Every structure is written in C-alpha cells, then in structure tokens.
Amino acid sequence: MNLLRAASTVSLLTLASRITGLVREQMIAAAFGASVMTDAFNVAFRIPNLLRRLFAEGAFSQAFVPLLAQSRAEGGDAVTHALIDAVATVLLWALLATCVLGVVGAPLLVWLMAQGLQKSGGFDAAVVMTRLMFPYIGFMSLVALSAGILNTWRRFAIPAVTPVLLNLAVILAAWWLVPRF
C-alpha cells in the first residue's frame, strides 16, 4: 500500500509538472512571441538545462542514490551523513567551477550551440542571458542531490513537486515582471 501511495503521489505531481510546463511555455510565447529575443532566451536556457541533465539527472543521480541507500542500510545514519557531507562538498566545488567556466565561456558556448544567432542579431543577448542563467545548473544539481537524499529517507512528495514550483516561478515572472520590463 505504501508503494501505491508513493507512486500515486509522484505520478500526480509529475502530471502537474507537465501541465504547469505547458502553461509556462504558453506564457513565454505570449509574452515574447516569435522573435530574436525568444530565440536568444531559448538558447540561453538550453545550455544550462543540458548540463543539468548530465549533472543532476544523469550519471550522478544514478550512482549516488543506490550508494546512499546501501550506506544507510549497512552503516546507519551517521555513516550516511558523513557520505552526504563528502559528496555535497565535492559536488559543490565541481558545480562552482562549472558555473564560473560557463559564465566566462558563454560566448563560445552560445556560438557552438546557435551560430545562426550571429546573423539575426541575438547573439549578444543570448550570451548575456546565458551568463545570467548559468548558476541554474548549480542550484538544480543541489536540488537533485537533496532529492536523492529525501528519496532515500522515503520522502517522495517534495522532490516530485520541485519542477511544479520552478514552472510556477517562471509563470509568475512572465505574468508579473514582463510588463514591468
């Protein structure tokens, strides 16, 4: 019964995430339309999002969660807390270095991902937006670390609701901030 409840909770929150993601995309399209700035935003958002998939949802999560569960089962909570501290420290430094490199190397990254923006005039805007959005990879990777920890302690709702919260924040920003800027 506990598995059914956990699976239902995660499934419903994933559905909510998909629905709010659709609304988010509609709000962005309504706010900006089809323009060079929309293309620049999409490129700038795609670069850290790609790295988020590698860092947060890729090999790191697939390796960390089973190791954490094994550590907790075999060594108890004290050993698991020491493992979390060690992994979080290394991850934080790796993410900090990645973010700094990404901010500094934003022109090269944008050029590699979207050379066509140079012709359309959105290249400089994409570089600025990439620099502003690059810390996203760091924060989202730390959220993924926290989600892995919470899942190990059988707390599934909070990690499942975080994408909904991100979508709601973007929706709110598009609705409230776009008219002001």
Q: Supply the helix-strand structural class.
A: mainly alpha
Counting H and I runs of at least 4 residues, what is the number of helices? 8
Number of strands: 0
What kind of assembly state do the chains in view correspond to? single chain
The helix/strand series, from N terminus to C terminus, equals HHHHHHHH
Helix fraction, binned, reads: over 70%
| Shape verdict | flat
Whole-number radius of gyration? 19 Å
Instruction: Give the overall average pLDDT.
Output: 88
Q: Name the poorly predicted regions.
A: none
Major sheet attributes: none
CA distance, first residue to last residue: 50 Å
The domain tally reads: 1
Strand content of the residues, in percent? Answer: under 5%
Describe the structure.
The protein is built from 8 helices and no strands. It is mainly alpha-helical and 181 residues long. It has one domain (2-180). α1 packs parallel to α8, α3 packs antiparallel against α7 (135-152) and α4 packs across α6. The chain is flat. The termini are far apart. The model has no long low-confidence stretch (mean pLDDT 88).
Describe what is shown at a glance.
The protein is mainly alpha-helical and 181 residues long.
SSE layout:
Layout: H1 2-32, H2 36-55, H3 59-104, H4 106-113, H5 117-120, H6 123-133, H7 135-152, H8 157-176
Helix pairs in contact: 1-8, 2-6, 2-7, 3-7, 4-6, 7-8
Features:
flat, 87% helix, 181 residues, mainly alpha, 8 helices
